[in-house]
Fold this protein.
Amino acid sequence: MSEIPDLGSPPQRITVDAKQVRLLIADQFPHLAGLPITPVAIGGWDNWTFHLGPERLVRLPSAAEYALAVDKEHLWLPALAPRLPQPIPAPVAKGEPDAGYPYPWSIYQWLDGEPASVDRIADPVRFAIDLADFLAALQGVDAAGGPQPGVHNWFRGGTLHTYDKEVQRALMQLHGHVDAELVREIWARALDARWDGVDRWFHGDIARGNLLVADGQLAAVIDFGTCGVGDPACDLAIAWTLLTDDGREAFRTRLSVDDATWARGRGWALWKTLATCCSYTLEDPEDAEEFADAQRVLGEILSEYVASAVTRPRP
């Protein structure tokens, strides 16, 4: 197995502006040099993203760790796309380091839609079922030869034990702001929940910003930088971070998720939410809204777990 990185240390990101992108395009893809280049309003964290005319986008990894996904996406996305019910990014061309930019980069076809949010989803249950169908189709793709968990995807699809130290650090940092005893109980159950060991495809970051909505319905799934084959429980975190109670129940039923996989999925949601809480400065008023949203998600995780105790013996 590859060496596990210190997940408490964020990657050293670089900045990219439209002028630099224009130089890269002009040098490597001169037939596209006349197209306007503008930053995407919500471009994500792992990549700097720019419109390239009305039909394409340019994605440039913001750190060396994120650049590891470029070759993987160009190899696997064309193979996955025909098997999936919603569109996913289609690579157009791969760029090379140049013009002071140090990593490989990509041009993709533009996909229409807005990032998913509660107010943009017309029917929460229908949305949950459509998302479950997408993940079921993804998991059904032959996993032979697919990328195993590793540094390229921050060990998504692997064991949750990779994130144990980060969770413990988060609990110390959030002392007095979370129910530490209940969080530790949920986390322990997630760590103990066994995976059957059968490799399946997963996206790795099924989150609001990577689910596009059009006319209130799921329209596309983007950003496969953390995809791979392994334990697909990491893709279940969305059940707590976005879906409603009814949507969560429909999502689980449609995917036929067993108790152990659901517990691991809850663990992924818990880790992600604790990490999000810790990324904000509690004393900074500008962070108040984001921290409150992370606290809301944490409340969803805790309340769903407690409610499930009706049919589950306590430890």
Notes: The longest strand covers residues 47-52. Residues 259-278 form the longest helix (20 residues). The chain has two domains: 18-111, 115-311.
